[in-house]
Amino acid sequence: MPTQQELIAELKEEARETAKWTGREQFSSRVLDAMRKVRREAFVPEDAVESAYVNAPLPIGCGQTISQPYIVALMTDLLDLKPDDRVLEIGTGSGYQAAILAELVGEVFSVEVIPDLARRAAKVLAAEGYGRIALRVGDGSLGWPEHAPFDAIIVTAAARDVPPALLEQLAPGGRMAIPVGEPRGDQDLRLLEKDAQGKVTSRWVLSVAFVPLT
């Protein structure tokens, strides 16, 4: 099975291969350092530990998956995160993406609709030293208005359309990475940016396949 070091090398190569679409020939050193530091094996089921550093999504129960490491790195990199940023994640899942974010920014808020996954993620995150991440169970399409605005928002499940509440909660100058499309159909990873006047622009980044946002 691949090692973490081998996975990082693969991520660098895939970034180069997809740069003509993503605009990212290489991921930032901060993102790669976070990918090195967070132990993906802690966030996958016991029977999948040997596959933890395969560059592929893995099932985590409840019909959900832990995202492919390349997609985690890409979506994180697209946000151009700064150390003092406040980030909202929609779809806690295993907690792996939240841990990556916590290595990069000051505050992470994460919403998960499935209670069992939220409880499991909270336990693993605390055990791995990420207990300061704020978690809640709820409808991710509504965001977390009590803590808005956010400098960045990352959505780890596919929505048919960009939820209006998330756009409202994105701060001026903020970025959102979100897969948009039909459940188990054609989906596009999009990067949305809100300028200082509140105008939102969107660009296609890559064709992707995510579980649906529920």
Structure, described:
It is a single chain. The protein is built from six helices and nine strands; from the N terminus they run ααββαβαβαββαβββ. α1 (4-22) crosses α3 (69-78). The model has no long low-confidence stretch (mean pLDDT 95). The termini are far apart. It is globular, with a radius of gyration of 16 Å. It is an alpha/beta fold and 214 residues long. The strands form two sheets. It has a seven-stranded mixed sheet with strand order 5-4-3-6-7-8-9. A two-stranded antiparallel sheet has the order 1-2. It has helices at 4-22, 29-37, 69-78, 96-102, 115-127, 164-169; strands at residues 58-61, 64-66, 86-90, 107-112, 134-137, 150-155, 170-181, 187-194, 200-208. A hairpin with a 5-residue loop joins β7 and β8. Helix content is 30%, strand content 27%. The chain has one domain: Vaccinia Virus protein VP39 (Rossmann fold, 3-Layer(aba) Sandwich).
